User: Fold these one by one.
Assistant:
Number 1:
Amino acid sequence: MNPRKRFLSAIMGGRVDRPSVVCVNQTATYEQMNQLGAWWPEAHYKAASMARLAAGALNILGFDAVRVPFCQTVEAEALGVPIRDGGRESLPASSAHPFTPGEHIPVPNDILQRGRIPVVLDAIRILKTGLRNEAAIIGGVVGPFSVAGHLLGTDQLLMQSFLEPDSVKPAMEAALETAAVFAAAMVEAGAEVICIEEMAASTDLIRPSTFTDLVLPFLQNLIERIQVPTVLHICGNTDPIIDALIESGADALSIDCKANVSAALEKARGRTTVIGPIDTTQTLLYGTPEQVAASAEKLLSEGFSIIAPACAVPPGTPTANLRAMVDAASKAKSATTKPPTGPGKPSTTVEVFARYDIRVQKGEVSTSSGLEDPLLARVADSVIKGDARQTEEAVQQALRKYSPLDIINLALVPAIDKVGQLWDQEYYFLPQVILAADAMQAGVRICEQEMGESAQKRGKVVMHVAEGDVHSIGKNIVKALLVANGFEVIDLGIDVPVEKVVEAVKEHKPHLLTGSALMTTTMSAFPKIARRLEEEGIEIPFACGGGAVTQQFCETFNMGIYGGKANRAPAIAKAAAEGKNWRELREMFHR
Amino acid sequence: MFDLSELSQAVINGQKAKAEELTRKALEEGVSPVTIINEALVPGMAVVGEKFKNNEFYIPEVLVAARAMNAAMAIVKPLIVGDQLKPLGKVVIGTVRGDLHDIGKNLVMMMLEGAGFEIVDLGVDVAPEKFVEAAKANSADVVAMSALLTTTMPAMKDTIAALEENGLRDKVKVIIGGAPVTQSYADSIGADGYAPDAASAVDKVKELLAA
């Protein structure tokens, strides 16, 4: 059963092949950051980085869902609360509380454009495309009471919630509106579950009657307005308010180990799902995988169909401890309609992907290059496997018999073509593509060194990723293909300002300019580049590609050519180098 | 004799204005500032602490009571001459470097003050050096640290190391607390004490200083 389906079924109390493991709060850890090349604080502010790091929950931890954002300040920031960055190791926090109890707080009409809300929405779009429905996407919103804490200051919130509850309602109303609008936008962007974090309503902080009288109505209202399954998360000892939590209408409750979780499970039976919590500090952060497994097994034996860390994963948590949860769940017997999947504990990133090689095991999809010559086959298979080191070794071996150009054309290019096919077949996902592209580039680099400068260049191409966009895999694959086909490539990198692109075209006078954009927000740079080039009297084919780009879009500005699939790039570059102008290229390549 | 139990009750109920009024009245009637503190404010906060331990009071009630106590304190403290009021001890308290959460720290601070300790509040995001300086400058008996995040907890270890480097470690008792903090964490970093909440923090500090 695919992870996404498992979680979505479990959250609604349905059939699963084995218990689901997720985290409904933040999942980023330093180990994952280093492995993925996506770190805080950048990952809080750039959608691509946020998505990449969040996807670690699937690709590295083996969870059934991914979740954004990492912090709990997005709504507050959008409403005007100053936020202090937490640097590489920590989360942003509110640094001041600009509103007073009783004060009406307006929710701006353009709230969805404020602060980092657009970043989170874009990250969800990227995950929706990139994950190919392998994992569920959880959008996190902070509950009205907790956001009110940022707006008013938690001490004011707590005191007034006791002394004068009506005075905190304006802040809660603004927070409720924001959360509802944000959640709806997240769902539209591709989120399938919304998790509402209401930490400040914990009985560690407020008395149970305050929760029931003041907080619950707001939560019920919010949950009613969300069209997808919801999880309500509250830490602390929730025993005194468990009935109220069940009445919130949430489809699942994420509670703390401090609560009597077994009792909660019983009480909620048939009414809402209770997620079994594993202690985050003692067990996950400071414990051993064996201790984690023991906690998980205990929960599973009690019948929890979903287990998760009790709260946000501390960023210092070792991956091994988090994976121990998944291993325990994989081994657990549960009501099944399909045989359990999943082998033991993979130790390298490449082996992690083997976990998803279900179709290969059944002989449906082949990842073999199918090349006859063993030396070339070894090169190609190493690329397809995404093993850069092995690719380099294989290329060195192959150079004894073949010329660098042959290795490129007969092994490396077919290998990346095969990767493209596996992507189309929805068998390879983003991580495999990333690794394969890196491996191919490693191979091409060695061949280039061998060829030296003697290889005659067929033409010159200037490449860039749009201003504000950091996605480079697509560009890198195209670049490798162009280099492999004998073109000189000037790579301007990512997030390249419009002016810099224009200057580079003026300086290098290439045959072809390419631009790549994954997000609709960044592809708007391309018409600007075209206009600037026209102003400078330059006419040059400008091939654009990337997830957001369509042929229709390319036709809205002069010089625009739709790149389409990466493997079209050499043909387009060849035609451009032969002197075809952009109108002729459109004739040739547009449908 | 002025009935101080009414003032105690005003503190317990979190009635700030009434507490201030009764304090002024008591002073007018000749009750000494020290007596007001020791026989009204301190016992009042002790009751608050008990109720908190018994889950009769939650944090809001404690915050409100502490606010009333602080208001009364603000009136009597300036009137205390010289050595009349001997604090049970001097406590330097703060939330560690990188952490901005202060409710827990504020509660502990107010409960300690209510129990008769003198408090030096360093606020939030307090670097180890700052704890050391303050402990030195104030001849502190106790250094109390709070953290809400697992990412900032390590600063507690750094602060203890800084105290050692400055030859202060055996001159103070170190007590730590905060949601992710545990007894075993306290043991592992060599803290003298750990308390799970503000009320038990007061007991723990008294225990540490009696030893």
Note: Residues 290 and 381 of chain A are 36 Å apart (CA to CA).
Number 2:
Amino acid sequence: MHEPQPAMQFVDLRQQNDVAQLGMWVFLATEVLFFGGLILAYSAYRIGYSSGFAQAAARTEIAIGTANTAVLLTSSFLVAWAVLIARQREGRIAGLLLWGAALLGLVFLALKGIEYSIEYRAHLLPGLSFAASGPQAQATHLFFAFYFIATGLHAVHVAVGIVVLVVIGIRARQGAYSERYHAPITVAGLYWHFVDVVWIFLFALIYLPGRSS
Amino acid sequence: MSSDRNYLTADNSLRSWLFTTDHKRVAILYFIGITLFFFIGGAAATMIRLELVSPQGHFFTSDVYNRLFTMHGVIMVWFFLIPSIPATLGNFVVPLMIGARDLAFPRLNLTSWYLFMIGGLITLYAIFAGGLDTGWTFYTPFSTMYSNSHVVLAVTGIFIAGFSSILTGLNFIVTIHRLRAPGLTWYRLPLFLWSLYATAAILVLATPVLAMTLLLVALDRFAGIGIFDPARGGDPLLFQHLFWFYSHPAVYIMILPGMGVVSELVSCFSRKAVFGYKFVAWSAIAIAVVGFFVWGHHMFVSGQSAYAGLTFSFMSFVVAVPSAIKVFNWTATMHKGWVTFDAPMLYALGFIGLFTIGGLTGLFLACLAFDVYATDTYFVVAHFHYIMVGGMVTAYFGGLHYWWPKITGRMYPEYWARAAAIVIFFGFNMTFFPQFILGILGMPRRYHVYPPEFQIWHVMSSTGASILAVGYLLPLLYLGWSLFFGRRAPANPWHATGLEWQTPSPPPEYNFETMPVVKRAPYQYTLKGRERAQNA
């Protein structure tokens, strides 16, 4: 295997590694503000309709949500392991770990799909199939609107992440990365961890209100 | 200059242009795009001014008039002003100024142009297929429930174009951090780069909030999720908060790059280092940071709490301080300098005067009581046009003339360029100064039928607009002419400092034959340089 050459705008591979990582951090800053806008809107209504949101949140599928949290955290662990191994040895084993993480990502999406279908049948999908009555009907409608937008956007991010992990996994299996050049693995890892962190916030905001009493 | 091969002549096929990753060529692609949008937005402005000549509104119905000012606002804000200086001049000179071969992510740079054009064309389609009547601000619940126009389509276009902004910002931040030539420390950076860095930070941090807001508007309209609909428990005020959280910082996206250009021009054409370099540099950062905490001054009459109003009013005064520092420092730079009045400098001087008027009237509007009086009047319209047109567009033309020899390898005709700068200055003032008076007299914005006593001011304004239109068409003609018949430009026609002038005009494909090493602070203009400039 020959040593990869830096792209023409870089002096050496070290600079290229560095640039890739900083680029991803800046991109994640954008993502934070993207989800931040949504979470701000959610929080405004959560305060405005505190009991309504608590009652609506109690109707979410906490078992599936919790299982999914475990699935995603485990996948993040595999990615962190892959980055560590890529730094120490060559990237072939890292490729397997990335595939493992991608597989868990698929499990996450499958569970999410089951959850959505349960909610659809319970007429909790605003805009398509929604039925609620009583004094908290409006709050329930708003809550599930946020629920579907937030988890839907998150699921899109998971799907993108799966594709990225699979592709980089393939390249790693082909021996494209070495201890000197493994920026794509690190960068994909950063992204995957971010997706994980967003989920942790969403889990707390969406599934946990109204459970304690 | 050893050979004729440069970035323009390297490969002439259309394919080589559409798939280029050379930052200089992407800049040219952006020039073409934003010039197109500038004249479309300008056509809408022309029709608006034509309609306003008569108090009864002879030419258009109210519905059409609503679509005209919306089209003008949407196109000028998102498809001209936001990308104007960063995506064209910035794209071209950032790698040259820092001594790099390209931006950090050349392919991303090309992607951002495609996103920009796709977003622009979708929005244009929405506008021509029936129009948009919400104003550029998309206020809910009008935009989500009542408007009978192409809201979702237009919002989609702006959403996509937003990602081009984000990618440009990301590219600039990483490039300025990581690709500087050896010896080029932060305090040796030209001030244009400090401005673009501050701009890029806003692009990256504010634009995603707009994206989310527009997504919610589209979903609200499309699927009736009711997030901004009071009848379903939603809150229209929340939309305004989210919208202005982006759109006020966006005002700084539309002025900071202009400030950066003016710093370069004033220093070069006064043959003197910028006075108080560090203050000017950090004031750009200060504007970007404080600019995130003033959005509520767009909502003084919206019913937000009085304490919020008070805080936003105070913060709006605070953000004026770094802007004022810049104006004072440019003035001090000229003091005892060796000022020449080449066309770029005329634009820079125009910028300083017009921006000062725009900025000071902004302070009027930051006062709670005065703002209640002036809200939604022509005073506001005049104020932000002084900033955006008098400021940013003037700086854009100044920068365009300054770097034109570098970009095209040709000199523009100096006489015509000075004439255009003067015509633009007079045309601009004649268009917009009467609008301050109209606003004080009580003329509301976005109406095309008005009481006859306002007519004299509207006629003055429209007359000025026709002069301004001539001023904007002139550069199109003589700059176009210079592409073919202009004098060949030397590497450094202005005897300016700055790395971009140390490579041939136009630059070779990868910018520099050898990697430059920087040993000095910027703007080291010397007496010898003055003499050389005088003899040139």
Note: Chain A touches chain B through 35 residues (CB under 8 Å).
